[in-house]
Amino acid sequence: MKISTIHKLCCPFDRADLKLEVIEQTIEHDVRTGSLSCSLCKRFYPIISGIPIMSPDEYRDVEVENVYYENLNLLGTPKEIKNFRLLS
User: Fold this and answer.
1) Pairwise CA distance, residues 38 & 40, whole Å
2) Which of 11, 17, 30, 36 is deepest in the core (most CB within 10 A)?
3) By its UniProt entry, which InterPro entries does this protein fall under (predicted)?
4) Which residues have CB under 8 Å from 55's CB, separation 6+?
């Protein structure tokens, strides 16, 4: 995902601004791994292989995202997520 794209995105549920957290970037400084989070509703959207996962809750794949959360724990940046919302 290109860094410039973040300015065009908002939370699909309440249209609030999103906070970008970059974990891994490409040589061109595109986001390869990271997350977007909404400060209003606390929803958490992972960026996996450069693609932000911003589907409605009922269409999100918990198993795919759990692998992402486990990798965050291994990297030392754990997140407490429940029902796709950031708790900590």
Assistant:
1) 5
2) 36
3) Trm112-like
4) none
* The dihedral formed by the CA atoms of 18, 78, 68 and 46, expressed in degrees to the nearest 10: 0
**Closest by CA position to 52, among listed 24, 79, 80, 32:** 32
Residue 88's pLDDT band (cuts 50, 70, 90): low
Count other Cβ atoms within 10 Å, centred on residue 38.
21
- Residue in this structure with the two tokens 């965050």, named with its chain if needed: 72
Joined tokens for residue 87: 């708790």
- Candidates 33, 6, 28, 3; CA nearest to 17 is 6
pLDDT, tens digit, for every residue of 41-58?
999 999 999 999 999 888
* Mean confidence (pLDDT) of the chain: 88
Q: What is the pTM of this model?
A: 0.84
